[in-house]
Structures are given as structure tokens and as C-alpha cells.
Amino acid sequence: MNGVVIALEGSRAAKASVEPLLRLTRADMERVNRLILSKAGSEVELIPEVARHLIDSGGKRLRPMLTLAAAQMCGYEGEHHVLLATAVEFMHTATLLHDDVVDESDLRRGKPAARKVWGNQASVLVGDFLLGQAFRMMVDTGSLQALGVLSTAATVIAEGEVLQLASARNPDTTEDEYLAIIRAKTAALFAAAAEVGPIVAGAAKPTVGAFRSYGANLGLAFQLVDDALDYGGSSQSLGKNVGDDFREGKVTLPVVLAYRRGTDEDRKFWRDALSGRNNGDDGLAHAKKLLARHGAIADTAQRARHYAVIARDALAPLKGGPHKDALIEVLEFCVSRAN
Amino acid sequence: MNGVVIALEGSRAAKASVEPLLRLTRADMERVNRLILSKAGSEVELIPEVARHLIDSGGKRLRPMLTLAAAQMCGYEGEHHVLLATAVEFMHTATLLHDDVVDESDLRRGKPAARKVWGNQASVLVGDFLLGQAFRMMVDTGSLQALGVLSTAATVIAEGEVLQLASARNPDTTEDEYLAIIRAKTAALFAAAAEVGPIVAGAAKPTVGAFRSYGANLGLAFQLVDDALDYGGSSQSLGKNVGDDFREGKVTLPVVLAYRRGTDEDRKFWRDALSGRNNGDDGLAHAKKLLARHGAIADTAQRARHYAVIARDALAPLKGGPHKDALIEVLEFCVSRAN
Fold first, then answer.
1. Which residues of chain A lie closer than 8 angstroms to B87, CB-CB?
2. Which domain holds residue A207?
3. Residue A329 covered by a domain
């Protein structure tokens, strides 16, 4: 069994990159990028200004690439995957804009958050605009099935965000509760992004299911690694400040594990820090020490590998080729970031 | 010509009410209300709590009634108008939740605004949830045409809100600019609500266009009257505080007219008040005096009548009957509120 998962842990994983996926989707992504610019346009000047602030700040655009690669892998030759990929990216951008208001963030992708430049108002409203545009593009594809998948994702994402809000600053959150949150707020859009590719290509049900499962589990791995990196890495490589989650009192898996495995004294520290006391630089340094002592970062990364393996197995029955290889390499890249 | 419009100005108008519309749509509205409660439900406790705070606070639900009445008038006998009417009401509720964050409102429909009870975060996210649910219900109808109309409305509403934000506190706003704002932020949803009724009923294109025009112009009249009432009426009957717009520095038509028609000294007062100086009770009293002196409220009401007449003419070619009568009486009721 070990031999099967070695690529997600060994030296090959360390060299894994998103490069092959980028290469395969390059031509279509150029069309997505043009469509993004055109659909973020409005005669109301503030809208393209705010939208482009975020759009130009260089997110990886992993989600639309998933849609494109999945559609290509299913032999799709039409135009609608470009519309759906753009819609997915707009849904993601809208979520980021609303998230910044909810989290009261100062930075996003290494730039001042839109709400710091234009105020909460513009972030809320431009997010709403992008969401409206996303649905219009879905309607343009004429696929009620894709519309169903993406509108359900929109609902689930909002539920996940509210769930996260309700368990904010609560260190008694269990790993299961944490998983329910990231399954909704992150994995749902990855799953939908991967699923609408085969849907638009008219693929058979088991294929659609395979991509959905791949996307959902990649999303979980991605979020787990992101949460681990918030206590490591540098501000620059993350495009956000290390320790943002800590300062905002976010209960992520590293904290859940360190809290449960710690002493009473440790737990008192976490409760204080999560409720805004001792959550400055000294607090962060102490938090990192506790996380290391209890192997909380390493085990968060291990959980990420668990989901990456499930994602890979989801694709196993599908015919091999460069697309399948590229999608598997994305899993390897994702978990290798945490090492 | 005068004889034709007399009902919108004379004694009959004074007795006009929404009662006939309520009666015709009562059975369907009961189904809408049940669907609202069910679709506002979520295992995430905070969601139904916040949603019901607003839903139970007794808005008139005029928009979903328009959808139902329009579908009935076109002979529709299916179930999908109930889904669309509920989707329309959810879009409206989501807008209100986001609006409160944008406006930093304290009251909504006479109750503390959701953001005052649960914070901006919950208002943003529960709004997003309701919008997602609205799109799911539209998808359930299988009508791509209705989806197109309502997703376009979602985009236009957000554009209108941003436009309003951009011209906030700016007394140089022209009447045309003001109209462009309310056309987008209010009339677009009224138009869509009325239009999807005949669409779901499979009505002919001229009929669909007639309802769209009726809805759009009713929406304009409705908003104009609302803006006039913000400087008259009582807090209780409005469900918001008289003078809210004034205190928030909102440039509505009464202000646009009084500013343009005023002296230099008047204009200095308005500029000060809109930028937050002298906008307390004394300022409001002075504002009302200036509005009265320049006939700004009466003329705002007159503009509302102008659009109400257009709305009535839009329906003129359609076959008469109780539904048509009820929809025309709504116009009369709407403009009579301003007197």
C-alpha cells in the first residue's frame, strides 16, 4: 500500500508543480482572463476599479483551471467551459470580497484589502455584482445542471462562512466541526469547479462523480495546507501575513490539535489568545512553540495528504493521459507546500 | 386627457389599497410564505435566526405578489410561479441585509437592523445564503428565460447600489443621475418580478414586455414616494425613522430639487448637512422648511404620478378583469401615500 502513496510524500512530490496544468489550460485561460476583464466592466466606474484591484493581484486561478482541464479531459470542444470557468472565478472573487468584510482583514494577496481602500460598502456591493455576473454567464451556457451545481455551491459556501463565524474564537471546536466548515466554505467550490467541466462536456454520471470527488478532496487538502502555512512560511509567499488566523482568533486545525493535546496551562494560553489577549508577536511566537511541541503542523499536513490520496483515487478509474497526470501533480504540489 | 389620469389623483385614489391584490394572491402567497420559511432554514442555526428576524418583520411582500398576480393573469396553472415569487422575495431580503451594512442603518422595518443584533458579518453572509437559495429555486423551475431576467436584475441592482454610493453626499447629483440610481436599485427588481410571471406562463412577447414596463414604472413611483415620505410621515408607519435619508446624507429627489431651486445660502446648508454637519433634529426641521418652500415634496410626488401613469398605460392593451384592476389600484395606492 505504501508504494501507491509514495508520490504524495517522496522526492517526486517535492518537485511537483502546477506547471503542467498551466500549460494544458494556457490557451483557454487566456480566454478566461479576457472574459474576466470584460465581465468585470461596468459603466459604474467604481466596479471595475475594485474588481480589478483583486483580479490583478495575481491569485493562482486554480479553480477555473480545474473546470477547463476537466472539460478538456472529457473531450469537450465547445465554448461553454470558458464561461463556467469565469463564473467560478467570479464566485471565488465575490467570496473573497465578502470575507474581507467579515474578517475585517487588512491584507489580501499581499495588497491592502479592497475594504481598506474603498470601504466595506464597495466590497459588499462589488461582490454582489460579480455574483450576479457569474449567474448570467451560467445562464448563457444554457446548462441547468451546471446552474444547479453552482447555485448549490453558493448556498453551501455561505453556510460554511456562517458556521465559521459561529465557532469563531471557540477552542472547543472539534476536528469534525472544523472539517464541516472547510468542506462548506472551501471544498464546495473546488468540487463544483471540477464537476461542471464534465457536465458541460456531457460526460457520463460516474465521470462527473469522479471529478466532483477529486475537487472536493483537493479543496480540503488545499485548505488544510493553507491553515498550516498560516503558522509558517513568509508573508510574501503567502500574500497574506503569517499569523493572520492567530490574530483574528480563527480556530483552524493546528489550533484544534494543539489545544486538545496541550496541558491546562496551554489551553489557558489558547483561550486567552483566541479572545484577543496575548495575541501579538510574543503570543504568536509562543503559539508556534506549542504547535511544534504537539506536532500540530506536521499532523495537519498529514491530514492534507489523507485527502489528497482520496482525490487521486477518485480519478483512478479514468483514462490516463496528460490531463490526469497534471491533476494528480496538483495534489502533490498542494501537499508539498506544507513541508 | 385629464379625465384619463384622474383616478391617479382624485378621491378614488385616496381610497385605493393593495387589498384587491392581496385577495387575489392570498392562496398562492400562503404557499410562498411556507416556502420562505422552509428555504430560509439551515442546520446552521444563525441563518434561520437572522433570516426570520427580517422575514417576520412584516414587509408588504409586494414584489412576490406581482409575480403571482402576473402569472395568474396570464392563465398560468402550474407551481413554478410560487418558486419564482419566493426567489424574488429572497433577492429583496438579501439586498436589504446588504444595504443595512452599506448604509450603517440602525433600524429596518421598525426593528433593530440585523447588523445591530448579529453584526455586519451575519448580515453579509445570510444575504449571500438567501441569494444562493433564490438561484436554486429559479433553477428548480427549469426556466432559463426567468433565470436570465433575474440574474440580470441581480447585477443591475448591485450596480445601482454602487452608483448610489459613488454619488453619496453629493448635492450636485442631477435628477437624471438620481433616476439612473433608482431605476437600477429599485425598479429593476420590480420589473423582473412582474416579468417572470408571464414568462413562466408562456405568454407572448408583447405581454411579457407590458408587465416588465408596468413593474419598472411602478418601482420608480414606489421609490419616489418612499423618498418623499422620508421627509414626512411618522417613524411607525414607515417602519424606519423619518429623516433617515437626511441623517445618512442620501441625495434623493426632494434634496436634488430643493438644492437646485434654492439660494446660495440654502445650498450651503445642504452641502453642510449632507457632509454630516448640522444634520441633527434642528437641521432636519430646517431641511423640511426648505423642501416645503420649494415644493420639493409635492413635485417628487408629481414625478411619481408621472411614472404611475406610464405603468398603467403599459397594461392598457391587456384584457381587463380583476387582476388588471388590482394592479392598477396598486399604482393608485402607491401615489396616494405621498399625499
1. none
2. 13-336
3. yes
